[in-house]
Amino acid sequence: MTNLISVIICTYNPNLHLFNRALSSLKLQSLSVDYWELVIVDNNSKIPVTPDILWHPNARVVKEPKQGLTSARIRGFVEAKGQIIIMADDDNVLEPDYLQNCLAIFDKYPKIGAIGGNISPDFEIAPPEWMKMFWPCLALRALGKHTRITNFAGHQINYYPDFAPVGAGMAVRSLALKKYMASISNDENVIQDRSGTKLTSSGDNEIVMQIMLNNFEIGFFPELHLIHLIPSNRLTKNYLGKLNHGIMNSWTTFLIKYQISPWKRFPKYLLWPRLIKAYLKYKPWKTDQNFVIFKGIKGQLQALAKS
């Protein structure tokens, strides 16, 4: 057994139908199971996760009792033995050549630390047209057919690349994770991804940022493609509003932490006046789209308010 790749799936109370589809896509990978391992992190699910993984000779389920995707990912990183780590969600269907392509990319680009690709949706029900502007909130990405690589080595990082990989399907070089793993041990303000029903985000952005700070390149590669399975309960005004609020709040917090925020902070006593102004400007009572936009603005303003 040569552990070139570790595939990590973090899960919490998974939708078993979607989870099984995700596992089936791994079963169909062109890369032989002799060259990769599968680590499933059960993040304190109400019913213990017991997937059918007998088809893989080096697959296991580990438990992480501390709630939250960030804690689950860290547990997966500690468990992983591979030179490359691929993060897949429990509703991600990876194309059959995904692992093989990741291996080839890291072999071709020795300075690359983290990579990602395009993410297409598979909706349980047809979504309304107005939701399209919020597809990035659901980790959907259509970035084209051209490879994009950035390199901040030796230069100050003054912006976050728009093609940086997201958590779904992100592949990282284990060596490049060292700075992130070292930083979280002494950082009380680690950016937290979703936890239970709390829909925060940007924990994956912090992983990428720490990899760049460690002088590794990051890249977008169109040959990497996965499908995000999206159930109907994620295609509602209320869910997208809560999601947009959590994402904009944590995204702004992330930008502030790394001193690359384009927005100025303000005293906390100005929060309510600015929320009222935003409420009147975006009129969340008029349309579902306006409602979701306002929720995002609210999350952003709450992050910008100085305590």
From TrEMBL:
<protein>
    <recommendedName>
        <fullName>Glycosyltransferase 2-like domain-containing protein</fullName>
    </recommendedName>
</protein>
<dbReference type="InterPro" id="IPR029044">
    <property type="entry name" value="Nucleotide-diphossugar_trans"/>
</dbReference>
<dbReference type="InterPro" id="IPR001173">
    <property type="entry name" value="Glyco_trans_2-like"/>
</dbReference>
<feature type="domain" description="Glycosyltransferase 2-like">
    <location>
        <begin position="6"/>
        <end position="162"/>
    </location>
</feature>
<dbReference type="Pfam" id="PF00535">
    <property type="entry name" value="Glycos_transf_2"/>
</dbReference>
